[in-house]
Design goal:
The chain is mainly alpha-helical and 289 residues long. It has 9 helices and 4 strands. The strands form 2 sheets. It has a two-stranded antiparallel sheet. A two-stranded antiparallel sheet has the order 3-4.
């Protein structure tokens, strides 16, 4: 299993890095869609196995709309007028705010629930698992697309988020297998240990040092962001483990040899990406954006 895990990473990581670094925002958004589609499919398959069938088609459509909204939010031009005033206009994209997508989703869920032939007792659980798919998978993951559109440092920030997760998962895997003794959450994921979690965090700190030098930014801030994103990523990993446990399965799928399904591969990234996006807000607030 270790060999297939390493081989899959060696093949996929250069491809993803190349697309992020050289691709346009539209290409990065398209890649994100290719990742989100199987992840949502796996999410709803797990829900069905746990006795919670959701409205997966409608949620998938709205998940793709979220990616479009995040891409469109980055397609803007800013023209300074002076006295602290700017004109901001959309370029080449129909303005669709994230809030609008969420409202569209909610209206659609209500319409589907009223029109369905399912027993009334199934409607609210189905709506709940559908909302979970949108709010816990699609929405936070979509912030990778928004990060990519950040002026000047977008691609570096996307790679920063990816590197925190990849480096952390890799070091945690090998340290946990070799030195792990103290279970972290035995009821959710018996193989996860506190030694592996510490290695995961340490890897994130090394990533922060490397990216602070590369981006020429404040090391202390990058360390804080790395810690918060790493912890959020580990929470995301445990959250998915709990979801899988409720469905009675070990992996969300078999799409990626040695890694399980797509949801298994991005569970940490889903929670880490919005944390890195918050750094963009801090960066802009300090006047660097």
């Amino acid at each position: 299993m270790t060999a297939s895990r390493v081989l899959t990473a060696l093949v996929l990581i250069p491809i993803v890095v190349g697309i992020v670094w050289y691709g346009t925002p539209a290409i990065v958004a398209a890649l994100s869609a290719l990742v989100l589609l199987p992840a949502l499919y796996e999410f709803f398959r797990l829900g069905a196995q746990a006795g919670l069938p959701g409205y997966w088609r409608w949620t998938t459509v709205c998940g793709l709309l979220l990616l479009y909204a995040q891409w469109g939010a980055g397609q803007v031009e800013t023209h300074p007028l002076g006295y602290g005033l700017d004109i901001v206009r959309s370029v080449g994209a129909v303005n669709l705010p994230v809030e609008g997508v969420i409202l569209i989703f909610a209206a659609g869920i209500a319409a589907i629930g009223l029109a369905t032939r399912r027993p009334i007792a199934e409607i609210f659980p189905s709506a709940a698992v559908s909302a979970a798919g949108l709010l816990f998978v699609a929405l936070p993951f979509s912030y990778l697309v928004r990060l990519d559109a950040t002026e000047r440092v977008g691609k570096q920030l996307v790679l920063f988020a990816l590197a925190i997760v990849w480096a952390g998962d890799t070091l945690a895997y090998f340290v946990g297998r070799s030195f792990g003794r103290v279970p972290m959450a035995p009821s959710l994921s018996p193989k996860k240990t506190w030694e592996g979690a510490a290695a995961n965090l340490l890897a994130g700190l090394f990533v922060a040092v490397a990216f602070a030098r590369w981006m020429g930014t404040d090391l202390s801030v990058m360390l804080i962001v790395a810690v918060l994103a790493n912890v959020a990523g580990q929470v995301g990993d445990l959250f998915e483990s709990a979801y899988k446990r409720s469905a009675g399965v070990k992996d969300s799928g078999v799409l990626l040899p040695g890694h399980g399904g797509m949801l298994d591969r991005i569970d940490s990234l889903i929670f880490a990406a919005p944390v890195v996006w918050c750094y963009v807000g801090w960066w802009s607030w300090r006047g660097h954006g």
